[in-house]
Design a protein that fits this description.
With about 170 residues, the chain is α+β, with helices and mostly antiparallel strands. It has one domain. The chain has two helices and ten strands, in the order αββαββββββββ. The termini are far apart.
């Protein structure tokens, strides 16, 4: 009788136990937060975009740490936000990555498939090169965004200083 009870309980709770173990062993999501500026705007004048430096706050999730997609979010003092998701690690390269994302300026706009991003530099502090990983505390990111804000021919360079804000202090 006890054997039957134990066997029945095991089959009943095994899926729940497996699910619980998978959830508890999932890697922690590393979010980098910080800020910086947009500069080197080209082709943006006809849209009325400022040609001088534009300050931004930023958040980044890197695919090489969390898996899935990389995601860069830029928040503007005027209240707007741009979200860029791309299926690639945040590593320096010549490749332009196709971006899925959105822009919020008064309402939500879909970027479509026009926008691209290229990672120009990822310098671990104290600026000795390197690629962000699960041990990175802070780094500088420089990326070129083509068709910025969904505007054809408008390109900018984002220069950001990011810190792993959910990492415990060393």
């Amino acid at each position: 009788m006890i054997f039957f009870f134990l066997r029945m309980m095991l089959f009943r709770f095994t899926p729940l136990t497996i699910l619980l173990v998978l959830i508890l062993t999932a890697p922690a999501r590393a979010e980098f937060m910080g800020g910086g500026y947009l500069a080197d705007a080209t082709g943006c004048r006809s849209y009325g975009w400022p040609l001088q430096t534009e300050m931004v706050r930023a958040r980044l999730n890197a695919a090489q740490i969390d898996g899935g997609q990389s995601e860069l979010v830029l928040n503007f003092a005027a209240g707007g936000a741009n979200t860029y998701r791309f299926r690639s690690d945040v590593v320096v390269g010549r490749r332009w990555h196709r971006v899925n994302g959105s822009v919020i300026w008064g309402r939500l706009y879909n970027l479509g498939n026009r926008t691209r991003i290229q990672i120009l530099d990822t310098d671990n502090v104290p600026f000795v090169g390197g690629t962000p990983d699960e041990h990175t505390r802070r780094f500088r990111l420089r990326a070129r965004i083509r068709n910025f804000n969904g505007l054809n021919g408008c390109d900018v360079t984002a220069v950001l200083m990011l810190e792993n804000w959910n990492r415990t202090a060393d």
